[in-house]
Amino acid sequence: MSACAECLRRARLIGFLAVRIADALADRRGASAILALSDEELIQAVAGDTAADARRLVKGFDDRIARAELQAAGLHAVCRHSDLYPQPLLDLGDPPAVLHTTVPPDRLAEMCAAPTVAVVGTRRASAYGLEVARELGRGLADAGVTVVSGLALGIDAAAHRGALDAEGPTIAVLGCGADRAYPRTHHALYDRIRAHGAVTAELPPGQRPQKWTFPARNRIMAGLARVTVVVEAAERSGSLITASFAQDLGREVGAVPGRVTSLMAAGANGLLHAGAAPIRGPEDVLDMLFGAGNWGSKRGARAARRASLDPGLRRILGAVEAGDGVDDFARGAGLPAADVRAALGRLELLGLVRRDGLGAYERVAGR
Questions:
Q1: Which of 115, 109, 34, 56 is nearest to 79 (CA)?
Q2: Would the N or C end of the chain have less CB density within 10 A of its end CB?
Q3: CA distances from 64 to 1, 74, 77, 178 (A)
Q4: Would you say 155 and 121 are in contact if contact means Cβ atoms under 8 Å apart?
């Protein structure tokens, strides 16, 4: 077995005390101190009038029942005593006793052994932020990097979708049981990740999320990742907690520059001001992972796509990049507007341009 009885018991105790832990916490990062306590210390610290029930759970725990429940939920478990446990998590002061996961432990270990990047950000993302996050997920996964995020609305979901677009590895870390989609509106995305990637959680199956479980899962994302990238984040965003955990671990942190007037970019811009690496696209993250120019031919992918175009399409793509309107370009080039629009349709099919909300064409970032 990849999870011992002692660690399964610990996971069940944390699940039992989840609401009490929420009551005991005054700040969002305080969960780390509480989760580092021993079983008895944890009971004394948070259990209150449920202490007797918590001690009965510990004393009478039957791991056979826990394993049957895992099997019924379609989950696997791996504990920190197993060789298949993701080794980077052991750098945490409070590594999860158990990871409950939708894939067998050997598959999870394989995904975590690859270069791993956490892509996180605000739930209230701009169109720009969503585009950049999806392109980061797509470009990193296409390069064989495992993309880690939290399945949340906004940036997290966009990063997962980008990785799935590239048919690459992605891991969703949840603040509830790994057997349930959260938020529920992401049930379809959860199913896609469960089918093609991995969903994992510290809490046992069936557990509902609590406020403290989100920063607690953020430490797992930071622990799994060699690099954490913040795409958009307000000044008090939970994504900054992930970045802070990464910095505590001595891991690299990057941020995508945003508009200085945007509240949703204030946190990411603050990270850049404090020395985080500026991230303009997947290439910058790959440089952080492997060193500049040491990650194969991916750097030339954008140039290769452009070089493969015929001269007419290259000129039209250049006009889009310059911000020229279709009619203006057609007049300047002496071409019928219908031909230019047909060429733009071809560029759109190639994924090099897209139409904005007003129907104008714009360059797709990173392509």
A1: 109
A2: N
A3: 12, 15, 13, 19
A4: yes
Q: Are 281 and 288 contacting, i.e. CB atoms less than 8 angstroms apart?
A: no
User: What tens digit of pLDDT does each residue of 241-300 get?
Assistant: 999 999 999 999 999 999 888 888 899 999 999 999 999 999 999 999 988 765 554 444
Gap between the Cα atoms of 54 and 153, Å rounded: 34
Residue 140's nearest CA partner among 118, 173, 155, 107 is: 118
**Structure tokens that stand for 359 in this block:** 């129907």
Q: Backbone phi, then psi, for 26, in 5-degree steps?
A: -100, -25
C-alpha span between 209 and 184 (Å, rounded) = 12
Report the predicted TM-score, pTM, of the whole model to 2 decimal places.
0.80
* 3-state SS assignment for residue 86: coil
Q: Label residue 270 left, alpha or beta by phi (over 0 means left) and psi (-120 to 50 means alpha).
A: alpha
Contact 235, 266 (CB under 8 A): yes
Angstrom distance (rounded) from CA 220 to CA 114: 16
Residue 323, by phi and psi: left (phi above 0), alpha (psi -120 to 50) or beta?
left
Q: Fill in the DSSP letter of residue 149.
A: E
